[in-house]
Amino acid sequence: MKTSFNKFLYIGFLLLGLYQAFFSKYYMQSAASLGIALAFDPFNTEQKWNDRPKWQKAVLIIHLILVFTMFGLEIVLKSK
Q1: Distance (Å, whole) CA 77 – CA 80
Q2: Closest CA to 28 of 76, 80, 64, 73
């Protein structure tokens, strides 16, 4: 896969996940979509993790935290 195609898939799944979270309130579906988005790394896939700039690492880590937040919201809101 080319990196530019990965960027389109990443952005598409990211937007889908955000829509599901904020407008549809489907937090589990949002977590799944956001998790799938992480599979399509929007940055250079040939570059090792240690060689990436800090801002790229930060973007991916914040994205992962968002996925866990959606899982947490689903658990907390469904347990009430």
Answers
A1: 6
A2: 73
| pLDDT tens, N- to C-terminus, the chain (80 residues) | 455 888 999 999 999 999 999 999 999 999 999 999 999 988 888 889 999 999 999 999 999 999 999 999 999 988 87
The rounded distance, in Å, linking the Cα atoms of 61 and 76 is: 22
**Residue 46 — φ and ψ, nearest 5°?**
-80, -15
4 CB-contact burial (10 Å; exposed 0-12 / middle 13-18 / buried 19+): exposed
| Amino acid identity for residue 49 in this structure | W
Asked if 5 contacts 41 with a C-beta cutoff of 8 angstroms, the reply is no
Taking the model in full, what pTM does it have?
A: 0.87
Nearest to 37 by CA among 66, 58, 57, 76: 66
